[in-house]
Amino acid sequence: MKKIRTLAVALGIATASTVAGAQVNPAVMPATGPLSKQTMSRLLLTDAARIGNRIVAVGDRGYIVYSDSNGESWERAETPANVPLLNAVFFADAKTGWAVGHDAVILKSTDEGRKWTQVFSAPNDQRPLMDILFTDANTGFAVGAYGLFYETADGGKTWTSRKLIEAPKKAPPPAPKKGKDGKAADLDIDDGGKGGDEDRHLNAIVKIGDNRLFIVGEAGMLLKSDDGGKNWTKLNSPYKGSFFGAIQAQDGSVILYGLRGKIFRSADAALKDWKAIDNKSVASLMGSTRLPDGAIALSGLAGTVLISRDNGQSFSPLPTGATKGYAAPLLGAPSALLLVGEAGARDVVLPAAR
Fold first, then answer.
1. Cα–Cα distance list, 101 to 46, 142, 150, 220 (Å)
2. Residue 235: inside a domain, yes or no?
3. What is the CA radius of gyration of the chain?
4. What distance in Å separates the CA atoms of residue 184 and residue 149, rounded to the nearest whole number?
5. Which of 91, 212, 276, 284 is 20 to 30 Å apart from 265, CA to CA?
6. In a domain, 336, yes or no
7. Quick one: CA dihedral 333, 339, 343, 345, positive or negative?
8. What global pTM score does this model have?
9. Residue 25 — very low, low, confident or very high, per pLDDT cuts 50/70/90?
10. If 0-12 CB within 10 Å is exposed, 13-18 middle and 19+ buried, where does residue 114 land?
């Protein structure tokens, strides 16, 4: 079976979704309310989003936490019981948030992330959702492992799955060969055990302009829609390894990042021409953000953080003094980058723009 690439898998950490009967001390992790700095430092956080002055982060065991102090202090949000590992969080507006994760679970909040309710799950499918995006109040998309793709047109009340890439039609098997006795002989057919494009993991979905959406995934999978997600086209990929995310720069160019620290940039509206961007680190890159001044930050395994101030044409490493993996960067306190990942959340001072 193919591996499903999440930050938890990349770090080799066992989670509540894989360890049955895991117990949590309520004195350490209360159901809701303030969290100690020690508790926060032990949390595996897989994604985060900023809405105004609030930061909301999701992660292991379905935990959702939020901060109104740029990460200085945190509180645990109210969530349903027994939620598995969450992989992504997205806010469609100042109040409405969405989170997705294992068991194809989808959670919704209408109060800036304080309280969450479950609106969908499909545990029997055993396919996690990796990312979610809403393009307006009603239209949303969620992507995940093995080509998993859900869409909603009614604000998340109902979710419908469909295949973005159809499996190729297989030719009928050859007629059985006859042995000397006239009986059918054994026929050994080996298809290599490899899934086709229709089964590739879809790791992230982003908006790259009016009605333009972009999906990146396993084995260099790139999909583009120019009509708001109704139709999708597979693009030629500059890399056969997995991409874990993409971000649009201030000048409209698109930056890809993923396995082994690979970074590619395209200034072509059709996303046909990609240029490899130099990166001396081979640590996989897992998350990104665009800061108010247009700078782009990428974060990844082994404490890796990269900063670009030229719309992704080049990246410079930002020393963090850490070896823990960072799943996502976002704007923290003034002149600081807030990083969430294997060891909760922490600030790193941003260098001044030259």
1. 10, 10, 13, 22
2. yes
3. 21
4. 42
5. 91
6. yes
7. positive
8. 0.88
9. confident
10. middle
| Each residue's pLDDT tens digit, 287-343 | 999 999 999 999 999 999 999 999 999 999 999 999 999 999 999 998 899 999 999
CATH number, residue 123: 2.130.10.10
Burial 304-323 (b: 16+ CB within 10 A, else e): bbbbbbebbbebeebebebe
Bridge partners of residue 131, in order along the sequence: 143
Report the DSSP pairing between strands 263-266 and 296-300: unpaired
The reply to whether 32 falls in a domain is: no
**Structural domain span for residue 217:** 7-15+40-165+191-349
Q: What is the pLDDT of residue 185?
A: 33
Amino acid at 202: L
Give the containing element (helix H, strand E) for 209: strand 202-209
Model confidence over 242-275: pLDDT tens digits?
999 999 999 999 999 999 999 999 999 999 999 9
Q: Is the pLDDT confidence value at 190 over 50? A: no
Q: Which strand (E) or helix (H) includes residue 8? A: helix 7-11
Whole-number percent of the chain with pLDDT over 90? 80
Number of Cβ within 10 Å of residue 197's Cβ equals 17
Structure tokens at 261: 């620290």
What total number of domains does the chain contain?
1
DSSP reduced 3-state for 145: helix
3-state secondary structure 240-285: CCCEEEEEECCCCCEEEEEHHHCEEEECCCCCCCCEECCCCCCCCE
Q: Is residue 185 part of a domain?
A: no
